[in-house]
Design goal:
single chain; mainly alpha
């Protein structure tokens, strides 16, 4: 059985397939680098060529402060969060074998947002890093609950249903925090956090988010081989010797860490984890293992461009990042889903 599975359906890609994946990632890295340069260069305050030269030659000058202290860390945080959400979404879609799965399907985003809302309502916003730590703690609690469930039940439907219930419960508790908020100021701060933004982020925020994201990414990449086997069905994957319980724990824990770190760094940002894998799925022949890195790069590119749009759209108050991803992303994803449904019918 193992030989049949590996030989007929899961033959490893040859050198040409591996090189094509490398070329795809290199191309996406190039596009992401260009988008990052554009995002650092453009902003609400336009610069002349002389000011750009001054910023490059003297980073401590006023134009240099704007570029390297304000815009560059903001772009870096957006790229990190987008990559985390894209990788988490690809992992969840592979684990649950559901193209509509995203990081929020586990309820981690809702409980992480709840942790931040409780911290803001309790007046902990004056303490540096308190909101971020509370959001990450909420994500870890939710992730531990889902990991425990994944180790006990093998059906993906059980994870989906539990995630939906956990997400609804977290949303209800967040609404309760809104209702019991001690002041309109705290209510506004909670709402702003839940809408998501990378405004006023610095290099320390990027470094704080990087550590849990690296651990989560390592767990998701380690689960990649098992996700590829799951395309044959859980029974065939189990007969091939795949440790299903360990696979689910790695995938769920990795996705929870990635999502929680993203929420802790910038609040709740939807759509990216759902859409990023679909943008590159056709380029990797729908292989759940080979789609992981391209999905991370696609998520980073999406969020960098979305944040650039949030800064450049001429509004009296800057749009929140979560609002921009929903406004531009939902119609684009609907078009992708419509095209995919046509291929499924044929």
């Amino acid at each position: 059985m193992r030989r049949l599975v590996r030989g007929r359906r899961l033959a490893r890609p040859g050198r040409g397939g591996a090189m094509s994946l490398v070329r795809l990632c290199l191309l996406m890295l190039l596009v992401l680098a260009l988008a990052a340069v554009l995002a650092v260069s453009l902003g609400e305050t336009p610069f002349s060529l002389a000011q750009y030269a001054q910023a490059l030659g003297h980073p401590a000058s006023p134009p240099g402060e704007v570029l390297w202290t304000v815009r560059a860390p903001r772009v870096a945080v957006a790229a990190l969060i987008g990559a985390a959400l894209g990788l988490s979404g690809a992992t969840m879609q592979g684990l649950l074998r559901n193209p509509l799965a995203d990081p929020g399907v586990l309820g981690v985003s809702a409980v992480s947002g709840l942790g931040a809302a409780v911290a803001i309502s309790a007046g902990l916003a004056v303490l540096p890093g308190a909101i971020e730590l509370s959001a990450l703690a909420g994500a870890l609690v939710a992730g531990a609950m889902v990991v425990a469930l994944a180790a006990r039940f093998r059906e993906p439907e059980a994870l989906i249903l539990f995630g939906v219930a956990l997400s609804a419960f977290g949303g209800a508790l967040t609404a309760l925090v809104f209702n019991l908020s001690p002041s309109p100021v705290a209510t506004a701060e909670i709402l702003a956090w839940l809408m998501g933004s990378v405004e006023n982020r610095d290099w320390h925020d990027a470094l704080r988010a990087l550590i849990p994201m690296m651990i989560g990414a390592a767990l998701c990449i380690r689960a990649g081989k098992g996700l590829r086997m799951l395309t044959l069905g859980e029974e065939a994957a189990r007969m091939s010797g795949l440790p299903m319980a360990r696979l689910r724990i790695h995938a769920v824990a990795g996705s929870a860490l990635l999502t929680g770190a993203g929420v802790a760094a910038a609040g709740v940002i939807g759509f990216v984890g759902l859409a990023a894998p679909h943008l590159v799925r056709a380029l990797v022949k729908d292989d759940p293992r080979r789609i992981l890195w391209p999905s991370a790069l696609a998520g980073a590119l999406l969020l960098v461009l979305a944040d650039l749009a949030a800064r450049l759209i001429p509004t009296e108050q800057e749009l929140k990042l979560g609002v921009v991803t929903a406004l531009f992303g939902a119609p684009a994803f609907a078009l992708l889903a419509w095209r995919a449904s046509r291929s499924w019918r044929s």
